[in-house]
Amino acid sequence: MPQLDTRAKLAILADAAKYDASCASSGTAKRDSRGGKGVGSTEGMGICHAYAPDGRCISLLKILLTNSCIFDCAYCINRKSSNVRRARFTAQEVVELTLAFYKRNYIEGLFLSSGIIRSSNYTMEQLVEVARSLREDHDFRGYIHLKTIPDADPELVRQAGLHADRVSINVELPTERGLVDLAPEKSVPQIEGAMRDMKSSIVDARDARKRFKSAPRFAPAGQSTQMIVGADAASDADIVGRASQLYDRFSLRRVYYSAFSPIPDASAVLPLKRPPLMREHRLYQSDWLMRFYGFAPKEVQSAADPAGMLPLDIDPKLAWALKFRESFPVDVNRAPREMLLRIPGLGTKAVARILTSRRWRNLRLDDVARLTVSIAKVRPFIVTADWRPTLLTDRNDLRALIAPKRQQYELFAA
Hints:
The protein is α/β, with parallel strands linked by helices.
């Protein structure tokens, strides 16, 4: 087999890394290279493969150390039995790539994961060596996210936390049954044990920083995880419940959801087509409801249909409101914040402005309209100084009236 050059390796291993969605960097420690020392900075907006609200592209070098793997997880394109072209970077090559790309202003940090080669400990040693070299040998102060391996030696995982801003351990699938069927070499107790150890290390490091300024930072952006959606029979209700458990038990910064993508030469146990991308979007919305809107997991699950699936045509908050109409209408001039957050069409910023504005005047329907994208969606669920929905909230066809209208776009529109 001919030796691959760095460009060819980069093409293979950057493409192989696209299936991992957990690459944001919110909450990390602030570092910069002012004063002529060090390389890089974590200042500014978060780092991920996305576009900021102002249209700015935020990027990082997102690659695998190698796409070779001794595991044979059915859903993974890099599994042992997969017929894909293999490549591998050395730790030094990843360090050189990161620095070269950063100095050319191509990236704002590094997201590094890997297939398992030789053993979990050997692979984890290579990942840690990349982060160590960047931090200690080159004084790199940009963002680093390392994907850790659950059954690696705890000391290696601890070293990853000392050098990286964020670490992540993927739970892979929402249910234990799904993991047994599709990834028999992995186990829930093993994954959760690693996440528990990481949580303890993060908490201990924060306590030490409060007492001793010289104490080292440990994964200042916390830990995250990812679940694959649609590869097994787990319903949306199952996924919401599992995500809630992970947040509560391991203090995760984020749970990411990645829609299963069919792969070449796939196992017969996998579905033939990918789930709708809208399903992934609805799960992120449900995640937001639990984290920022005060919804309990059971409330989000109650918005699902009898099969446990969230509706695709409307968002989970609207689905909940339509199911529990006895909670509405809500008087925007008197209701507490927790009830205002449950009104479909009102976000956290709009609710904050309502709470501020109503201290000085009674709000009218036009006032609320200026705070939301669609007053038609909000109107059936609120009472204002000049508006009361009367029978509108109880109409049988309310869903059809306020659900987003499907729109056919023109391919060659000017």
